[in-house]
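Predict structure. Input: Transcriptional repressor, 136 residues.
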Amino acid sequence: MNVKTAIQKLKENGYKHTKQRERILSILAEQEQYFAAKDILKEIQADFPSVSYDTIYRNLYLMADVEILEATELDGEKHFRLGCGTHGHHHHFICTHCGKTKSIETCPMDELGEDLRGYQVENHKFEIYGKCPACS
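Output follows.
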């Protein structure tokens, strides 16, 4: 997903386009990695010195709720990234050191047919954590 598409999705869901939201999205769009709210705050304060941690956090959760952002938990803290948007069904490897991600096209759900007999799966999420080649 790109910034323009994300802003349009916010508008479609009844939320205003603000410069702060646009800047949050542009920070996330610059790199394919997960960011904690505190990391976004550090980046955005150069442009918006009075912005608070709570404002960043609320906006990240709002954008995750309308499926603009993807969220995961690293070291007990929520991290966010811009949703892939253009990819088909896939999963991610997430670097625990730098937060970079790599798409994984293989889905382990294909192997679980008999294990889940009688269960109705509504959704799933598969993430692998470790260190990327640059951080190894």
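Helices lie at 3-12, 19-30, 37-44, 53-65.
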